[in-house]
Amino acid sequence: MARTPWQVQKSVIFALFIRELRTRFGTYKGGYIWLLAEPILHIAVLMSLRSFIRDRSMYGIDFPVFIAVGVIPFILFRNITMRVMDGVDSNRGLFSFKQIKPIDTFLARALLDTMVSLSVFFLLLTGMYWFGLDVPFRDPLPVLAIYVLLIFGGLGLGMIFCVITHYLPESKSILRLSMMPLYLMSGIILPIASLPQWLLPYLLWNPLLHAIEIMRGAFFVQYHMVQGISPLFVVMSTLAVLAFGFTWYWNRRLELLAR
Amino acid sequence: MIELRNITKSYRLDNGERRYIFRDLNFTFPEGANIGLIGRNGAGKSTLLRIIGGIDTPDRGKVVTDQNISWPVGTTGMQGSLTGRDIVKFVCRVYGTSHEEMLEKVRFVEEFAELGEYFDQPIRFYSSGMRGRINFGTSLAFDFDYYLMDEVGATGDAAFKEKSKRILEERIERAHVIMVSHNMSEIARLCNVVVLVQDGEAILYEDVKEGIAAYQSMVKKIKVARGEKGRENASPAQTPKERLEERRLRQKKRQERLARRPQQ
Prior knowledge:
The complex is a heterodimer of chains A (about 260) and B (about 260). Chain A has helices spanning about 5-25, 35-50, 50-55, 65-85, 100-130, 140-165, 170-175, 180-185, 200-205, 205-220, 230-255. By secondary structure, chain A is mostly helical. Chain A is globular, with a radius of gyration of 19 Å. The two termini of chain A are about 30 Å apart. In chain B, a hairpin with a 5-residue loop joins β1 and β2. Chain B is of the alpha/beta class. In chain B, α3 crosses α4. Chain B has helices spanning about 45-50, 85-95, 100-115, 130-140, 160-170, 185-190, 210-225, 240-260; strands spanning about 1-10, 20-30, 35-40, 60-65, 145-150, 175-180, 195-200, 200-205. The interface of A and B includes residues 11 and 100 of A.
């Protein structure tokens, strides 16, 4: 009967994972289709702006591929952050099971979003390849590393947001909106190299920009990463955010549960 | 054995003040008894129940137990888009049951709840009575040494009430309950001992009647101190809900009497 804490946590995360899966796209079978809708729509909208960007600095890179490689990881980061932020509030009823702790809901949600993102990434790029676009999956290691860093970064930032919104529920919408400027400043649409030079030193404070640039560099041979892109900066800021988020959550975990 | 050791529990109010519910509470629950927790609203009965169940964490101190204690009966953290079946499966997964056990428990709840095709419909289509059936059934599908019940009145129609009462009484023969209730007749029916929770203390009464009497005289004293006149007929321990129920019962009896009259 007695299970080790690790066994308990494993079964709890599995239970929560299935539950998230069911609540998010469970009730009707077509639900899974919508997963692909967001990135595809995204790319479609940006395609319509294509002529505007086209001849700037694309070096013959296929634009949809360029966008997909940036936008899908970004959506993953944003989704994990937002879902972890809401993790405690939207699962309140579940904490009447002593086995279930907030961290389990965070991990289950992050896990689901990761799997969703990886499948979308794979499906979309395969689809593009099939349609005759050039998908140069050149260097898998940095891609994998960036994915892992984005997952943990999202978890960390999500936990920070979760604690903030517990004490300041009004801040939820602001934090949600803050993802928009972050999107614009991370070079998702425009290659960073095409922006004015004087902006660059400021933009480089954003670790997400580094992550997306490294991602693109890992795909396209022709892509020239901006000066000053540092993998170490991504690693360090991810670790810092994760450590801070987790300690803050851990110190406040009992208060998060108190109503 | 369930033992509370030096339990201190406080809450911080919105104005920053700290309110202590228990300070260094030591208490040993009697072995093998059905325990009723009674006390006034806000005395800390539910908090105590949640601490025993490991859902709420005390500021200091701990609960020492070798017993298998349930989650509070009647809560399963339902979410609108899940079906009744999903809920049962979810709880099974949390408890890490084997696949066979899961099937067995799902079948148990399905039969117990008698929801027919609704068992596979999202809960947002359920009435509150139907939700109650799933919640109660899921708790009963698991074998615990102690079932925690916080104001769980039997829900549903007469036939279902009768059934849940029967199954609960059956279960109590091999397991126990720790219940919070303001319904003294329910406490008297199900419990062997009562614990009066009052001013951060827990007082054990081995005799249920004595415990209920102590509680009622305490409530009376408070009322007298407030200068309220207790109504002669109503027992002072009644909550407004119980009073309402009693009034309904009186009305029903009167209607029955009226209905009988013309036939005579």
